[in-house]
Amino acid sequence: xxxxxxxxxxxxxxxxxxxxxxxxxxxxxxxxxxxxxxxxxxxxxxxxxxxxxxxxxxxxxxxxxxxxxxxxxxxxxxxxxxxxxxxxxxxxxxxxxxxxxxxxxxxxxxxxxxxxxxxxxxxxxxxxxxxxxxxxxxxxxxxxxxxxxxxxxxxxxxxxxxxxxxxxxxxxxxxxxxxxxxxxxxxxxxxxxxxxxxxxxxxxxxxxxxxxxxxxxxxxxxxxxxxxxxxxxxxxxxxxxxxxxxxxxxxxxxxxxxxxxxxxxxxxxxxxxxxxxxxxxxxxxxxxxxxxxxxxxxxxxxxxxxxxxxxxxxxxxxxxxxxxxxxxxxxxxxxxxxxxxxxxxxxxxxxxxxxxxxxxxxxxxxxxxxxxxxxxxxxxxxxxxxxxxxxxxxxxxxxxxxxxxxxxxxxxxxxxxxxxxxxxxxxxxxxxxxxxxxxxxxxx
Length: 444
Hints:
The chain is of the alpha+beta class. It is built from 16 helices and 12 strands. It has one domain (12-437): CATH 1.10.630.10. The strands form 4 sheets. Strands 1-2-8-5-3 form a 5-stranded mixed β-sheet. Strands 4-12-9 form a 3-stranded antiparallel β-sheet. Strands 6-7 form a two-stranded antiparallel ribbon.
């Protein structure tokens, strides 16, 4: 029994740069060379063992939180999200924070946000150009940012939203501008010509807005407000303690950044898949007409949009926004045929698991029917992660995507820009369509 799966013997610097620049080709290459599990070694990082076998995935996701630390696996995000972000916490602190964050994302609570989501989609669609190419990813970013700002703060358009929106857009542009910023030892301020200095400056401005809002909202009665910020301010843990200002800031920035960018990218990939598969597009439109008719989509329609839901899932199978998740192992852990040593990382590989032909026949074929009327195994399909770290916002994001797609498909017809080939490109930790995925809105 070997302690780690085999892997390339190339220098750590080469492995690091190849992963940062070309992660998907690298995963495919090593899966072909070494099989369903392999080990990579990056600079200043413990060895990382990649797994795509569902048995191994289950062992990783069901390992005790004291043994397998997900927060430590996300440490590269600490300078952006803050040390109190639920994505970076482990053990008792993670459990406490997750419990405090759950109520805003409960199914019944999301029904209250449906109108906000629909209005945001319609406002954006109203301004889409006709018969002119435009990047749909940017429009989806605008929609999802509008939704998350309004659901978090519960306020209409005004100086606060305008200021915060412009700061977040520039912040995300810089963070996504170079995948090299994901290397921890490059996250340093090297002067006015470096992105990291500008990122730090923008971060301070965003923090000033958030802390000002926290102070104002704490000083005023919430008066039955239903926005996420109000719920977090009023939340209390088992000891009756509220979240600190720093905790509130870190969780809000996590929702504003992670919740906005990932959903926008997911929506863009769904649009891409629909335009590449006209038969699927027609089936989705037929279902929307049958279920929703000519009126606006409502909460009661959601459970009946089975084929739309399957289309979203099949897109997430082929185009997961994040291709891998990680667990830092504090203790030696049996995973498959290997006993992975302590101080190593076990990485369930979403991208490779979603393409295993014995799990997904003809894995490169886009076929939403795979998901229609079927229960999904959480160890063969896990675009939102798994175990106790399954994404808190998964249901919120899916609900939001259904509303945005329903509004878009009922109002406009899009077509791809002739001659443009969509590639997968890296934007910080997410994987998005190239060039913002340009499309053309057809004249009515």
